[in-house]
């Protein structure tokens, strides 16, 4: 029957699109990651007069992608342990302590300090702005 | 590099097991940094491996050799 077959093919297409959507967004994220990875690899290669072949860059992307999975699960576990549903910088700090690559650990610690200081500064200026607003509103 | 931070945030979120788990803004920034370090380490160590073997072309073989230690270090 024509109508039945066209209905079936429509449902089939719809299903394909739904499935396609979910797969594509993971794929899109991986592709976006790949873009940054290849930029970074190219820079390193150029600085040392070498070439990274495409297979290698893809492998690094894949590894970074899988590492994200591991990081995410650990971060979620740390947050849950702290009875929070939002992953905080404390959780990231805990994640980074495993790194024996001292350079990266120190780098991240410094970044954390810079961010914490920026947060404090933001709060200070936000506090000032708030008191000014309440003054204006009472007038 | 704002695109990268956004990518990292969405990527990490996609791997959470529970729907209620969210990623704080500052945590995303730090994780983006951490991932950049990870990729940088991977690239540099691979390159150093190729150099130590006197190879002009940096290959997946060089990456495979440094991968175990890289994963242990992170």
From TrEMBL, chain A:
Alphabetized PANTHER family for the sequence: CENTROMERE PROTEIN S, CORTISTATIN
Region (Disordered): 117-139
Family membership: Belongs to the TAF9 family. CENP-S/MHF1 subfamily.
GO cellular component assignments: FANCM-MHF complex
A GO biological process held by the record: DNA repair
CDD domains found in the cross-reference section: HFD_CENP-S
InterPro entries given in the database record: CENP-S/Mhf1, Histone-fold
Origin species: Gouania willdenowi (Blunt-snouted clingfish)
Transmembrane feature ranges: none
Name of this protein: Centromere protein S
Keywords: DNA damage, DNA repair, DNA-binding
Biased composition (Basic residues): 122-131
One Pfam family it belongs to: CENP-S
A Gene Ontology molecular function term of the record: protein heterodimerization activity
Highest taxon in the source lineage: Eukaryota
Automatic annotation (TrEMBL), chain B:
Keyword Nucleotide-binding tagged: no
Gene3D superfamilies: 1.20.5.4980, 6.10.130.30
An individual GO BP term: kinetochore assembly
GO molecular function, one term: protein heterodimerization activity
Keyword list, A-Z: DNA damage, DNA repair, DNA-binding, Nucleus
Coiled coil regions in record: none
One cellular component term from this protein's GO annotations in UniProt: Fanconi anaemia nuclear complex
The keyword Ubl conjugation belongs to this UniProt entry's keyword annotation: no
InterPro entries: CENP-X (IPR018552), Histone-fold (IPR009072)
UniProt superkingdom: Eukaryota
Cellular localization per UniProt: Nucleus
Family, per entry: Belongs to the CENP-X/MHF2 family.
Subunit structure: Heterodimer with CENPX, sometimes called MHF; this interaction stabilizes both partners. MHF heterodimers can assemble to form tetrameric structures. MHF also coassemble with CENPT-CENPW heterodimers at centromeres to form the tetrameric CENP-T-W-S-X complex. Forms a discrete complex with FANCM and CENPX, called FANCM-MHF; this interaction, probably mediated by direct binding between CENPS and FANCM, leads to synergistic activation of double-stranded DNA binding and strongly stimulates FANCM-mediated DNA remodeling.
Descriptive protein name: Centromere protein X
């Amino acid at each position: 029957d024509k109508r039945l077959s066209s209905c079936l093919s429509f449902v089939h297409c719809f299903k394909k699109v739904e499935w396609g959507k979910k797969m594509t967004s993971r794929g899109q994220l991986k592709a976006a990651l790949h873009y940054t990875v290849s930029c970074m690899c190219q820079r390193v290669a150029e600085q040392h007069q070498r070439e990274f072949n495409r297979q290698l860059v893809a492998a690094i992307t894949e590894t970074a992608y899988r590492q994200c999975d591991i990081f995410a699960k650990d971060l979620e576990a740390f947050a849950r342990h702290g009875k929070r549903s939002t992953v905080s910088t404390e959780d990231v700090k805990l994640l980074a302590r495993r790194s024996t690559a001292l350079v990266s650990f120190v780098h991240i610690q410094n970044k954390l300090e810079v961010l914490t200081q920026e947060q404090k500064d933001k709060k200070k200026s936000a506090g000032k702005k708030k008191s000014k607003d309440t003054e204006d509103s009472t007038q | 590099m704002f695109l990268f931070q956004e990518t990292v945030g969405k990527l990490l979120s996609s791997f959470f097991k529970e729907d209620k788990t969210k990623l704080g803004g500052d945590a995303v920034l730090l994780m983006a940094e951490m991932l950049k370090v990870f990729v940088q380490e991977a690239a540099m160590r691979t390159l150093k491996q190729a150099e130590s073997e006197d190879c002009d072309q940096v290959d997946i073989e060089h990456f495979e050799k440094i991968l175990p230690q890289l994963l242990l270090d992170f």
